[in-house]
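INTERNAL AUDIT FORM
Audit reference: QA-55
Scope: verify that the stored structure record matches its stored sequence.
Auditor: D.O.
Record contents follow.
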Amino acid sequence: MDVFDQLKLEEQKVKLNTNGWIESFAFLGFGAGVNSFIGIIVAAIIFVGTFSISFGNCNFNFPGSGSNSSGSSIASNSQSGEVAYVDAFLNNLVVTAKGSQIASISTTQTAMGVALSPDGNTAYIIYSNFDSSNILSVGIGELDVVSIQLKSVIASIPIGGLPTAVVISPNGQYAYVAFASLSVPGSISVVDLSSNKITNTFSASSTDTGASLFSGSYPVGLAISADGSLLYVLNNGDGIFGPGANPTYGTLSVISTKTFQTVKSISVGKDPQFLSISPDGSKLAVGNYFDSTITMIDLTSYLTNTISVQSGVTALAFLPNGSQLLVSSGSDPALEPLPSSHKYPDNLSIVDVNSGKIVKEITTPNSVVGVTVLGNSCYFIYGYQAGLGILDLSSYKLTTSGPMNLGTK
């Protein structure tokens, strides 16, 4: 029996489960994007998952129809005070403001990520339309435009491929959507939000870092500069995970939004999953899961330094002071096993970016897979539908709620 015969058998198993999940298909926390520009959006965390197939000595991962291991994405807007959250398992978008739910909108498909417009009036959700009858298909992607006031989808934009992250330009004119690829370097499409049409598509990285079957350059996160002139693309590398896998080092591509050319490519750690820009736009942090590190990048000189943490980085975001990071770490069972020396209990840490030291640790009941900071509060997602949490950054009081209950109705 060859590889593709085995894939057909696994495909049949998928059909047996009404939710599309079976034990032999691990849903992986695959990507994140953080968009942060001064005074408007503090952070938008975007995730994408993959189906994992293991047999014999082979481990393959195929981009799947959903989000990270929690099946969730979270975004916040400091201008409107809103937090938006989508759940890939429950097909729902929830928007809250000042702790109260202002909208709950059903989505017809499995969301891959969410971003908010600069004015907070609109949410943008990406989908893959994954074909469950063919696990080698990548579906036809879609970008939905959701009016938060009307609590409904007002436009659906076909974008093709397998979208992994979305970020909105500071002027609200463009959406940049990242796409993973099974065989070639990933790509970025530019969507004009006035016409709802794709105006350009370009490579997500200057080189293809993939080196194995179904490999490619996997863009897993996007961020944009405050003036909208530079797009930061986090590339995971070969996209191969699972037991026995040895993830490659990733890269951060700095791309001009005028020429759509890569102006700088920066090496980061193994299995990078998350990025965050400091409030003043001077620094960018990359969370690397497999080697349990944070790559700090000076956005003027592009010089880097590495901060080590106790366990795999599962999410991160800058605090408003810009000198500290909120980092969640732990061992996510949906990702490849960590080295034994890197396995510690799940926790949130406050990390000083200058000294690299942990100044505060908060134990969490479950693995945190996404965070966003809004004012003096941190909103975060626990993996596997384990709920949502809010951390008061003054008292460090932790509040946990059930799935889709971020704020009262």
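Auditor finding: record pair retrieved intact. The two ends are 54 Å apart (CA to CA).
Action required: none
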